[in-house]
Amino acid sequence: SVPAIPVPSQVQGVMLTGSGTSLTVSWTAVTDPMYAILYVVRYSTNSSTRTDPPSDAMKKSGISATSTTLTGLQLDTIYYVWVAAEILGAGVQGPYSTRFPNEVTVT
Question: Which residues, in sequence order, are CB contacts of 20 under 8 Å at separation 6+?
Fold first, then answer.
């Protein structure tokens, strides 16, 4: 039988830096000895819960680096951000980051 692909660790060390209508999100790398890791960033102006993104949260996926910049954001708006690691090509995603607070005001 095929062994189960392990769930990646939770992303830690999330940092949020806003500048104008963009927001840079960075985090500590998640490593796995056998699989390549990509990252998913979800962001929203709605924080239905603080541990999981709302279903309508915008998504940026397939990120191979440990930072990304979100652009085209609205000024004077609070954004909530979640980051998760996923196994490349396997559809196995780890839990979202639980950075508190996970919000930043774009000004």
Answer: 75, 106
